[in-house]
Amino acid sequence: MARCTAPVRGHSSAAAQAACPACRYKSRGYGGYSSYSSYSTPYSSHGGSYSSNVGSANSSSKRPRWSSSGSSVSYTSSQIQSLTPIRETIEVKAVAQPELRDAFLCHAWDDRKASAKELHDLLEAKGVKVWFSEKDLGLGVPMMRAIDKGLANSRVGLVLVTPAMLARLPKESVADKELSALLAGNQLVPIVHNTTYEELRNVSPLLASRSGLDSSEDSMEDIATKIAELVSI
Q1: Sign, CA torsion 59/60/63/68
Q2: Which of 54, 80, 201, 230 is the most exposed place for a label (fewest CB within 10 A)?
Q3: Which of 34-38, 83-87, 146-150, 163-167 holds the top average pLDDT?
Q4: Residues paired with residue 154 on neighbouring β-strands, in sequence order
Q5: Quick one: CA dihedral 180, 183, 187, 188, positive or negative?
Q6: Residue 119 vs residues 16, 33, 131, 164, 169: alpha-carbon distances, Å
Q7: How many Cα atoms occupy the beta-carbon half-sphere of 10 within 13 Å?
Q8: What is the residue extent of each domain of the chain?
């Protein structure tokens, strides 16, 4: 076997390496790893770069600008897209009307001691100031009047959409123009619970046109966290 003629620190030049009986084939990429390494390094670098870019893209799509880096929840791209204009409305109102509560919670009467109270309590535990009809509105007040009053006293509205709400909506005779104005003003966030947006679309296409949060995707705890982040200024 040929022995390398190089000093301890290696050949002084490429020509010297080419003249060495042990190393000349390596310099041409035969029988050694130098050629393979020169090929594999760009590939690995490209792969690493691609992976990094994908991770970066996913990270940016999972974290809206108003959510802290240490947040315990992640967002879908659809949620970020639908909540961003709501956040902008909140920021404007926070400056213009700092005395307003963070959010109001609109719900069906049958949910007042169940899912609506659960969400209300989770929100308040996270420091969200909630306008809640059970404590802020008299019995028997029509839903749209509750929405109007709730929005007048809050920066943003939450509509808890449940089977009970779907049964109630047609009876409320909710005017399309009223609901359209609220949605166009980026003031409402639908929260679908124990039903689907498809079912909501069958009852109220306008309300279903604004995607929001869904308990089939997030727990009530995570939904409350996302709302708390959304309204936090």
Answers
A1: positive
A2: 54
A3: 83-87
A4: 101
A5: positive
A6: 77, 62, 12, 16, 20
A7: 5
A8: 76-231
Tokens encoding 51: 């992976």
Cα distances (angstroms) measured from residue 193 to each of 14, 32, 165, 231: 71, 63, 10, 21
Q: Which residue has the tokens 């947040």?
A: 71
Q: Which CATH number fits domain 76-231: 3.30.457.10, 3.40.50.10140, 3.30.70.2660, 3.40.190.170?
A: 3.40.50.10140
64 has pLDDT over 80: yes
User: With contact defined as beta carbons under 8 Å apart, do 228 and 83 qualify?
Assistant: no
Q: What percent of the chain has pLDDT over 70?
A: 64
Measured from the Cβ of residue 84, the count of other Cβ atoms closer than 10 Å reads 14
Q: What letter represents residue 147's amino acid?
A: I
Q: How many CB atoms within 10 Å of residue 186?
A: 19
End-to-end CA distance of the chain: 74
pLDDT digits (tens, 9 = 90+) for 41-55: 333 333 333 333 333
How far is Cα 9 from Cα 33, in angstroms, rounded to an integer?
19
Whether the per-residue pLDDT at 151 is higher than 80: the answer is no
